[in-house]
Amino acid sequence: MSNPNSTTAVGNRFTFRVLNLLLATNADVQITPAGVGDRGVDIYGSYCGFYMVVQCKDQVAPIRENQIREFEGVLSRYNFEGVFGLFIISSRGSFTKYAQDRARSSPNLVLTTDENLEENLEQFQAGPSGLVIRETLGELRDLHINLERQILEEFDNFRSENRSYTIKKINSAREVAKRIRAANITRANSSIHL
């Protein structure tokens, strides 16, 4: 009979917890079968059109930079666009500053805790959240393009409104200039006739 407090048992319970959290977000995921040489991949599947590779850690000791580098090595084996890594720790754990810095420099890696998982996935889906992700990733890229298009349309509308306002101001200034010229010409003509 195995020890329910062993590192393996604690890790397995946390992995199942993460699996259920991911399933609740409509991710299509499954646990990596035991004994297949998972190389750090605890859960895999898809989320919003992206292939997702997940590593779960339930430990009190902070996650260090070398653990992030190792997971980046795992991600590098998935050499195609549309894949991202999710490194999930329990809320009792933390990431060192160097681990966070390392993850920020990685183009397709998200760090989160079990408590913040849903929020961070929503931010990932929405894009500009501080999470670094390749722009060429499917739906995120489409979302980015749509947002950019909306911003440009709003800018064009603003510019058009200001342009028509500016044109009105210019036309008004031209009218004033014509009146001044006419008044000056009239004065000049008056002074000549005197």
From TrEMBL:
<dbReference type="InterPro" id="IPR007560">
    <property type="entry name" value="Restrct_endonuc_IV_Mrr"/>
</dbReference>
<dbReference type="GO" id="GO:0005739">
    <property type="term" value="C:mitochondrion"/>
</dbReference>
<protein>
    <submittedName>
        <fullName>17439_t:CDS:1</fullName>
    </submittedName>
</protein>
<dbReference type="InterPro" id="IPR011335">
    <property type="entry name" value="Restrct_endonuc-II-like"/>
</dbReference>
<keyword id="KW-0496">Mitochondrion</keyword>
<dbReference type="GO" id="GO:0003677">
    <property type="term" value="F:DNA binding"/>
</dbReference>
<dbReference type="GO" id="GO:0004519">
    <property type="term" value="F:endonuclease activity"/>
</dbReference>
<feature type="domain" description="Restriction endonuclease type IV Mrr">
    <location>
        <begin position="13"/>
        <end position="119"/>
    </location>
</feature>
<dbReference type="InterPro" id="IPR018828">
    <property type="entry name" value="RRG7"/>
</dbReference>
<dbReference type="GO" id="GO:0009307">
    <property type="term" value="P:DNA restriction-modification system"/>
</dbReference>
<dbReference type="GO" id="GO:0006302">
    <property type="term" value="P:double-strand break repair"/>
</dbReference>
<dbReference type="InterPro" id="IPR011856">
    <property type="entry name" value="tRNA_endonuc-like_dom_sf"/>
</dbReference>
<dbReference type="Pfam" id="PF04471">
    <property type="entry name" value="Mrr_cat"/>
</dbReference>
